[in-house]
Write a structure and sequence with these properties.
The complex is a heterotetramer of chains A (503), B (534), C (702) and D (103). With 534 residues, chain B is mainly alpha-helical. Chain B is built from 21 helices and 4 strands. Helix content of chain C is 70%, strand content 3%. In chain C, helix 4 (123-142) runs antiparallel to helix 5 (146-164), helix 6 (171-202) runs antiparallel to helix 8 (224-241) and helix 8 packs antiparallel against helix 11. The chains are: A mainly alpha (503), B mainly alpha (534), C mainly alpha (702), D mainly alpha (103).
């Protein structure tokens, strides 16, 4: 062991400052929870501070491009690159909002005494997700995935008393366990074929033609199962509606954004790094012929969005409806990947940045309403637009944005996806996607209809919303409206974030 | 005054009004109403100012230099991903003879519609917020010259319209609203797709000589701006222009509405409140035809020339079919709705002629139909407010009870069936003169004249059923028009008569542009021909 | 005395009645006496038109005065170059004479109406309508282009619609108005198509310009066939407006309107507009077109005449006689007797107006009783009416010393000449036959109305002579039905200034070989004996024709005298001296009688075919639209019902706005998708594993 | 005395994997389902070690296996806790009776 390696270790530790921050935050949270177990008020502040610091570190090293924790020659277990950093930032941001949600969420408040573990687990998830987005090694991928899953299993069933919470967590744990198991099996096979777990090494190893395609293909698909379940892509989405409906709203929101983001980051990195052959000047990827990822992803994405949209037509539970809508959105996002070009990745990044706000916003409003009415059923939304215009209009805007109508940001997100598609001459896919958008209008507009067009049997009680909540909604609302008409910064951000380490 | 951004002003004034109304307590109903009236009134004045400053000799259409009141600012300019090149969306407004008429129409009709919204009862505030938002959307569509901007305005109207029909509409309003929304959205997604396709096929040359992809419609109209291998580029031997054209056309045709995409119209009209029917028939339908003239024609002249016969055919079908359907209606409002279908058919027929007279006729018909149908729907509204029914057979002999009302209605009816001396005649005559002038669609034009006959048929029959005959007992209490209704009907009547006697007032506005467009379409054959062997 | 004065005069005459209309209509409710304003206006208009005619005919008998302005400028068109649409006023002898007729009769009718319409609740509006009618009629008279002709064409249509349906409380009245308008529209479609062709070919509407270009041999689609078609299409307008066969059905119904209106619009002026139109476009009518016109004229002269024989409604009889007389004019134009057609137009205008006003006065006296079987013996009660009515009847039957004799004789001569030139005697035969019938039914009418014993006593007792304002017009018109105004020699119209100086056969512009042979300018008489020059007449069309007319004059006159007398005789035999029994005769020729009585079943046939067809199609389409199209576009409606029965849950969703069938469809898909969301985690696993296997098989890339 | 090669190990792991899936799908009892998951994980473990041994890939494989074992334990702990909670609320651990959340 010479000093050089030691230095290198130190450098790596420098590179993962954000993760370290989060880990420290976890410890502090536990300690705080132990020391002053009467006063839970402190916990949110601690966690916010932790996130802010982590966020600062991410921004600080945003454009660095290097490996951490070298294994052998030129690669490492972790990759710190703008792409990863963007998603980390997104995760941190989302988490921050989730913390705020949780503070104002009724369900969570009811279990005040268990706040300590709540925040700890959230941070566990954050940590896991951060590693997910930057991991370049199958081992790390698996470990981080599991870390995220384990914490989310518990969070999904956080408020143990209620029936659906615990059911959700059970389904989640079984489903997740199996998916990760299958994934692990895939990993093991790849390890068997290549003798390495590092994506870069694998990539360089499989450049040579003489490897067993079939087995490798099998392995690849098996791994995709693991990731596909995280991003709830059909046909691995089945857990999503149930868990989303069952889990507490903040957690649902968190799952629908942060862990989905992490999953996408992971998927993109995995596919690109492992199977890339070359990137042409137009930014289109040329993958190895082992797995026909392009058509595979296309099929999956179309299946996902269609299924999500059509199934959503039926839902009368707001959370469940949003669950399906988030499945549909996963489909749109996959299209960005299906293009197999940097442009597509940029589109995904833009979409995510917008999706985070509009989806969080939607969930936030649903939560605020649920806090008061204690119901997420669509029928209880009747006349809400009149009894509580602010929430009604806000939700309307979020949903319109989710539909993707201008001048809301949602339109820009979709626009970029379609731009990528058309540029890649995937017109038919684009048409299918567009028709899906039309279908999606059905159920989004249904909510609007309930809120504004229908009069409730009994006049809905007008309820007041705390100033904090209003502020939070506005915070969500602003980007959704601003980015709709002025999205330059967004695109600039994406532009700087598409660079993956290596390619 | 020279460089005052009057187009932005006229477009976004309603939004300003919206923001103000937002902070007016919803109990201050009259304040809200009057404010809206003020806003729309100012719009009319602004439109007149535009008219005053408008230079009749400039052509526009595809020539940026001869557009007027141009406002062009960099709106979104992303020094792009290396591989897309630079994304540049301009805030690009401007009008030519084609759009100035529509701006005027929009201003007038909106103003009248505001008046007729006066008796809206429930949640006034929301209504006028939506109303003003809709206003901005409509204005924007007519002044935008950047496709991206155009599309945003285009979609901006959907939601307000949905709510206006869905909340303030009749018994089956929800059905009508969702139907309208879905149809139009279906149309607009096609437009979106074509827009993106065009973006990747056409470039714009910047000051520094570099070429970049563009949403600028005017650049798309110059064949030399197309990239060699863009999917919608005429230079690309296996391009998708035909399909794209059809998609785009359908997108607009749904708004017109063109057979067989017209079925949303009767429902929407029947359910919508009077003011909204007025807007719908007066302005929204025009957007379809305007879109075709503004986008389809100049950007796809080659395809247009190929498909012109079908356009005329569909126009013919609209005319005859709409008229016959109208003839069978029992509901006054539905009848008017179908008559709109028939009358928009004239527009299509005129456009298809591809010659000056025909296209002038089409545009004039757009304007006239806007005013006349607005009048018709207002009159329907008048009787509905009083009798709370629209069944044609419930009435009879109203001419005795409400002679003045009968007078206005008769005026509108005869204008609608193209009686000389009223505006409808000139446009219809021009449409036929033009269509007959272009050899390919001559036969269709001749058949189309049947529409005039059928029109007279159902209109006079309606007259008879509603106004003539002996007065029914239950209606002998109905009051005649009140002041507000005068205020709505008289201006429109004056326009209808004025344009009937002196159509040049409109035609001179558009002459230069129309001639320019016709010239452009003619040259297109050679220009495109030289590129992609016709 | 410049020509511009004429134009200004014409302009004033044209627009005064419009002013009258506007003022009377707007102030009608407020000011009860406003109708006097309208009357004053009309009187002024009349006197002005007299001045106009005087100036025109005495100072500029030869040249036509034109004043035009640019109405629409289409700018500089590609290919075509600058194109503009001009409107304008043309005053030539025809117009000058016509305007006098129109404004005179219009004035008389106004005056007549003052008494006739007394106490009507829409008194003022009635006069307003008369005003707009006069305006639009003047427009037709003065127009110098076919577009303006069409414009005012439609406007007279409008005013006739308003006036026929003036008593709209009566369903029959509003029906008649609608019928008149729509039937006219049918004709107008033809006219409009003709205009389309003309504009497409010449890019102008002005008569002169069109004539010039045709004169230069530039004809539509470069084929004489299309020239003929154009002529016929334009003539369609006349068919409609002049109630010619087969579009004559509206005129009898139009009698629902007030009687003075019938006199003005449906006898004297508007219906004559058709003839006026043909006169205007006469120079460009090809031989084929003229022949077609002649046939239509003949049929329209004959059929209504046969119908008139059996009608019992006084106004109906007159209506049919009007159609028949208009048929005469059209016929005479068809055979080339141009000047006599216009001559007959004028004379007919006067005596037919007189007949109608007379009948009006009768009806007025009989308290709106129109059935002649309930009348009789009225001559004692109302001598003035009787006298004037009698004169008019003599005129229409073509008895010497009346104006009708002169004009009708001319027409018959025309047909005669045509026969002699072409060997086609059909028209002549029809002409004389109709003359016979006319004399018969007219005197049937006179006798049944005024002679014999009153058949409805108490109505008779209340009957009384009409007041002065009603009698005066009758007298004036009666005077105008005497020959003296038109020619000093009661047996030769040619000697009066009217025909010798004012009404001139126009120059023909149609290509030589498209004309009737005898109209070709080179067509010379067979043996050059005493030609036209010999007895210094001027040449009409061609030597041949002039001579033929000359020769036809005397025999035609004698023959017409004979048939007229015959008709008269029979009328008296049947109805006055009761020597013959009409009912017996009717029994003998039952089918013919019924045919005539039922107006040849035209209305029934039309209702059964066109009307029924249109309405049927429209209902069908409406049904299709509501069910099929909506279905096709929105998805399939039947599938809809099937599925909705399939799942009760559907209806909730349906109510929730997914009403259309695509929605059903998508809902259906959604249903399938949610069937798999069982909530059982193990099912999910199975599905995952399954899909995994499927994927493996789908995508194994080798 | 046959020589045990890579393929034997792989065979065993495949069998385990399949059994795991089978168990998960067929067992009613939640605990048994969890067992199934454990089987899958272990089948993967066998792969790792076998590959590491026979492919001379160094120690990565064994390390991986260790990690997996640890995680499996953790997962089991969490899962069992959840099952316990389920038993409290539903008073059954029968997986296919727990389907209140569904469309």
């Amino acid at each position: 062991m010479n000093t050089y390696n030691l230095n290198y270790l130190v450098n790596s530790l420098y590179l993962i400052k954000p993760e370290i921050t989060i880990s420290i935050a976890i410890v502090i949270l536990v300690l705080v929870d132990l020391i002053m177990d009467k006063n839970k008020k402190l916990l949110p502040f601690v966690s916010m501070i932790g996130l802010v610091v982590a966020g600062y570190f991410i921004v600080d090293q945003f454009s660095t491009n290097s490996f951490a924790f070298n294994t052998g020659s030129s690669t490492g277990m972790l990759v710190i690159d703008p792409f990863g950093n963007f998603f980390k930032l997104l995760i941190v941001l989302a988490s921050a909002f989730i913390i705020l949600f949780s503070v104002s969420s009724k369900e969570i408040k009811e279990n005040l005494e268990r706040h300590g573990e709540y925040f700890t687990l959230i941070f566990g998830m954050i940590l896991g997700m951060m590693f997910m987005v930057s991991s370049a090694d199958l081992i790390v991928i698996y470990l981080s995935l599991e870390l995220v899953s384990l914490s989310s299993y518990i969070l999904a069933g956080f408020t143990k008393q209620t029936l659906r919470n615990s059911e959700a967590s059970l389904k989640y744990v079984i489903y997740g366990g199996i998916s990760s198991g299958i994934m692990l099996f895939g990993i093991s096979i790849i390890y068997g074929i290549t003798g390495s777990t590092n994506l870069y090494e694998i990539n360089s190893l499989i450049q040579s033609p003489q490897i067993q395609n079939l087995t490798f293909f099998l392995a690849g698909i098996l791994i995709f199962v693991g990731i596909g379940y995280k991003i709830s892509a059909a046909p691995f989405h089945f857990w999503t509606p149930d868990v989303y409906e069952g889990a507490p709203i903040p957690i649902t929101a968190f799952l629908s954004i942060a862990s989905k983001a992490a999953g996408f980051a992971l998927l993109i990195r995995f596919i690109k790094i492992t199977f890339i052959k070359s990137v042409d000047p137009e930014g289109f990827w040329h993958l190895l012929g082992i797995i026909d990822w392009k058509s595979f992803i296309i099929v999956i994405s179309i299946l996902t969005m269609t299924l999500g949209n059509f199934a959503a037509l039926w839902q009368n539970n707001m959370k469940r409806l949003l669950a399906y809508s988030s499945i549909a959105h996963a489909g749109y996002l996959l299209l960005g990947l299906a293009v197999m070009s940097n442009e597509g990745i940029a589109a995904i990044i833009i979409y995510f940045a917008i999706y985070a706000f509009m989806n969080l916003g939607a969930f936030l409003v649903v939560m605020l309403i649920a806090n008061k009415t204690g119901s997420e059923e669509l029928d209880d939304y009747k006349g809400l637009g009149y009894s509580t215009p602010f929430l009604g209009v806000a939700l309307a805007i979020f949903l319109v944005s989710l539909t993707g109508l201008p001048p809301t940001a949602g339109f820009i997100g979709k626009l970029y996806i379609f731009i990528a598609l058309v540029d890649a001459k995937m017109i038919v896919v684009a048409v299918i996607a567009l028709l899906n958008t039309v279908v999606s209008l059905y159920y989004y507009i249904r909510v609007l209809k309930h809120m504004f067009l229908d009069r409730p049997e009994k006049e809905a009680p007008a309820f007041s919303i705390s100033a904090a909540a209003v502020a939070l909604v506005v915070v969500m609302l602003t980007p959704v409206l601003v980015f709709g008409v002025y999205f330059t910064p967004l695109v600039d951000l994406a532009k700087n974030s598409v660079a993956l380490m290596g390619f | 005054m020279e460089n005052f951004p009057i187009l932005s002003f006229i477009t976004f004034l309603p939004v300003v009004g919206m923001l103000i109304i937002l902070f007016i307590p919803k109990t201050q109903e009259t304040v809200i109403k009057s404010l809206t009236l003020l806003v729309t009134g100012i719009q009319v004045i602004a439109a007149l100012i535009i008219l005053h400053g408008f230079n009749y000799s400039l052509g526009g259409i595809n020539d940026p230099s001869s557009f007027q009141f141009i406002e062009k600012f960099k709106w979104i300019d992303i020094t792009g991903f290396s591989w897309i090149g630079r994304i540049k969306v301009d805030y690009f407004l401007g009008i030519d003879g084609l759009s100035v008429t529509m701006v005027l129409l929009t201003a007038i009709v909106t103003f009248i519609a505001t008046l007729s919204s006066w008796n809206i009862s429930k949640s006034i505030k929301g209504y006028f917020l939506m109303f003003l938002l809709l206003d901005t959307g409509m204005m924007g569509v007519f002044v935008a010259l950047d496709f991206f901007l155009f599309y945003i305005f285009w979609e901006l109207m959907l939601l307000p319209m949905y709510f206006l029909i869905g909340i303030w509409g009749g018994p089956r309003r929800e059905y009508a609203a969702i139907k309208f929304f879905l149809y139009t959205l279906l149309g607009s997604v096609f437009i979106l797709l074509v827009m993106i396709g065009l973006y990747f096929s056409s470039t714009e040359t910047l000051a520094d000589g570099s070429k970049i992809f563009t949403f600028n419609m005017l650049s798309m109209m110059d064949v030399h701006n197309f990239t060699a291998n863009g999917i919608l580029s005429p230079l690309n031997p296996n391009n998708l222009r035909l399909i794209a054209y059809i998609a785009l056309f359908v997108g607009f045709a749904i708004k017109i509405p063109m057979f067989p995409f017209h079925t949303w119209l009767p429902d929407a009209h029947v359910e919508a409140p009077t003011a909204i029917s007025v807007i719908l028939a007066g302005v929204l339908l025009k957007m379809g035809t305007y879109g075709i003239l503004r986008v389809c024609y100049p950007i796809f002249p080659d395809i247009t020339i190929k498909l012109v016969w079908f356009i005329a055919l569909f126009g013919l079908i609209n005319i005859i079919y709409g008229a016959l359907c109208a003839m069978a209606q029992k509901d006054f409002k539905k009848l008017i709705a179908y008559s709109s279908v028939s009358h928009m058919g004239f527009v299509l027929l005129g456009m298809a002629s591809l010659n000056t007279i025909g296209i002038s006729g089409a545009i004039l018909q757009m304007f006239n139909h806007g005013t006349i149908t607005a009048m018709l729907f207002l009159t329907v509204g008048v009787i509905y407010d009083r009798a709370h029914t629209r069944g044609l057979d419930d009435f009879g002999g109203l001419a005795t009870q409400m002679p003045i009302y009968a007078g206005f209605t008769t005026l509108a009816f005869f204008a609608a069936i193209g009686l000389p001396g009223l505006s409808g005649f000139v446009s219809e005559a021009f449409v036929f003169l033009g269509a007959f002038g272009s050899g390919s669609i001559r036969t269709l034009a001749v058949i189309g004249t049947l529409g005039i006959l059928l029109g007279a048929g159902y209109m006079l029959w309606t007259m008879q059923r509603v106004f003539l005959g002996s007065l029914k007992e239950k209606w002998n209490k109905l009051p005649d028009l009140d002041f507000r209704e005068y205020a709505m009907l008289i201006p429109l009547s004056l326009i209808v008569i004025f344009l009937g006697v002196y159509p040049s007032a409109m035609l001179n506005l558009m002459n230069a542009s129309v001639n320019h467009m016709v010239k452009f379409m003619m040259d297109a054959k050679t220009v495109y021909g030289s590129l992609i062997g016709f | 005395m410049t020509e511009t004065v004429l134009i200004q005069l014409a302009g004033i005459i044209l627009f005064l009645p419009l002013l009258g209309f506007i003022v009377t209509l707007l102030l009608g409710k407020k000011i009860k006496l406003i109708y006097n304003f309208e009357n004053a206006i009309i009187i002024i208009a009349f006197s002005l038109s007299v001045v106009l005619a005087f100036i025109k005919l005495s100072y500029y008998p030869q040249n036509t005065v034109v004043g035009e302005f640019q109405w629409i400028n289409l700018g500089n068109l590609p290919v075509l170059g600058p194109v503009s649409i001009d409107l304008g006023i043309m005053v030539d002898n025809i117009a000058a004479l016509m305007i006098i007729v129109v404004s005179l009769i219009s004035m008389l009718v106004h005056i007549f109406s003052i008494a006739y319409m007394k106490g009507d609740k829409r008194y003022n509006r009635y006069f307003a309508y008369l005003g707009i009618f006069t305006f639009s009629m003047n427009g037709i008279v003065f127009t110098h282009n076919i577009l303006m002709m069409y414009i005012f064409w439609e406007l007279v249509g409008l005013s006739s619609y308003l006036l026929i349906g003036f008593w709209y409380e009566k369903k029959s009245a509003s029906d008649a108005g609608k019928k008149a308008f729509i039937v006219n529209r049918v004709g107008d479609l033809g006219m409009f198509s003709g205009i389309l062709i003309l504009f497409y070919t010449y890019h102008t509407f002005t008569f002169d310009k069109i004539f010039q270009q045709i004169g230069m041999g530039h004809i539509p689609f470069n084929s004489e066939f299309w020239l003929t078609v154009t002529g016929i299409l334009i003539f369609c307008g006349a068919i409609g407006k002049s109630a010619q066969f087969p579009l004559h059905v509206w005129l009898p119904d139009a009698m629902e309107g007030p009687t003075p209106v019938s006199a003005l619009i449906h006898a004297a002026t508007m219906v004559a507009a058709g003839v006026y139109l043909v006169i205007r476009v006469f120079p460009i009518l090809s031989g084929g077109a003229l022949f077609f016109i002649a046939i239509i004229g003949a049929l329209s002269a004959f059929i209504p005449a046969t119908i008139a024989l059996t009608q019992n409604d006084i106004k109906k009889v007159l209506a049919y006689s009007t159609i028949s007389q208009l048929g005469y004019m059209i016929l005479s134009l068809g055979v080339g007797a141009y000047s006599f057609a216009f001559f007959h137009l004028i004379t007919h205008a006067f005596f037919k107006a007189l007949l109608f006003l007379g009948s009006g006065s009768v009806i007025h006296a009989m308290h709106h009783e129109q059935d002649i079987r309930k009348m009789g013996g009225l001559r004692k009660k109302m001598p003035i009416t009787y006298a004037t009515f009698l004169i008019a009847s003599l005129a229409i039957s073509g008895i010497p010393l009346t104006s009708g004799f002169l004009s009708k004789d001319g027409i018959l001569a025309g047909t005669f000449a045509f026969g002699s030139l072409t060997g086609n005697w059909f028209f002549a035969a029809v002409g004389f036959l109709v003359a016979l019938l006319t004399a018969f039914y007219m005197f049937r009418l006179v006798i049944l109305t005024f002679h014999g014993e009153p058949r409805d006593k108490e109505k008779y007792d209340h009957a009384h002579e009409s007041p002065f304002v009603m009698a005066m017009p009758l007298v004036v018109l009666a005077a105008l039905s005497i020959f003296i105004w038109y020619t000093p020699n009661p047996f030769n119209p040619e000697q009066g200034p009217l025909l010798s100086q004012w009404i001139k056969a126009p120059v023909i512009y149609t290509p030589q070989d498209a004309r009737y042979p005898f109209m070709r300018s080179d067509a010379a008489p067979k043996e050059l004996g005493q030609t036209a020059q010999a007895n210094n007449e001027e040449v009409v069309f061609s030597e041949t024709y002039t001579e033929a007319m000359h020769n036809a004059h005397v025999p035609a006159m004698l023959l017409s005298l004979f048939v007229a007398g015959l008709g008269l005789l029979f009328a008296f035999l049947f109805y006055q001296w009761k020597k013959l029994n009409p009912d017996k005769l009717a029994e003998k020729i039952k089918p013919l009688y019924n045919l005539s009585l039922n107006k040849w079943y035209f209305d029934e046939i039309y209702d059964a075919t066109f009307v029924a067809l249109t309405l049927g199609i429209s209902r069908l389409f409406a049904w299709i639209d509501a069910h099929i199209i909506d279905g096709i576009v929105d998805g399939s409606a039947s599938l809809t019902r099937y599925i909705s029965s399939f799942s009760g849950k559907f209806d909730n969703v349906v109510v929730d706005g997914l009403v259309n069938s695509t929605a059903y469809f998508s809902g259906f898909v959604g249903l399938v998708f949610r069937r798999i969301q069982t909530g059982k985690v193990q099912t999910y696993i199975v599905l995952v594993v399954f899909s995994l296997v499927i994927i493996l098989f789908l995508f194994k890339s080798f | 005395m046959i020589h045990i090669g890579l393929s034997h190990f792989l065979f065993v792991s495949i069998v385990l994997f399949s059994l795991g899936i089978f168990g998960i799908v067929t067992r009613k009892n939640a605990v048994m389902v969890l067992m199934g998951i454990e089987l899958i994980l272990n089948s993967a473990n066998i792969n790792f070690i076998a590959f590491a041994k026979f492919g001379n890939f160094g120690y990565q494989g064994q390390i991986m296996a260790l990690f997996v074992i640890i995680l499996a334990a953790a997962e089991a702990a969490v899962a069992l806790a959840i099952v316990l909670n389920i038993y409290k609320t539903f008073s059954t651990v029968n997986v296919d009776e727990i389907d209140t959340l569904k469309d």
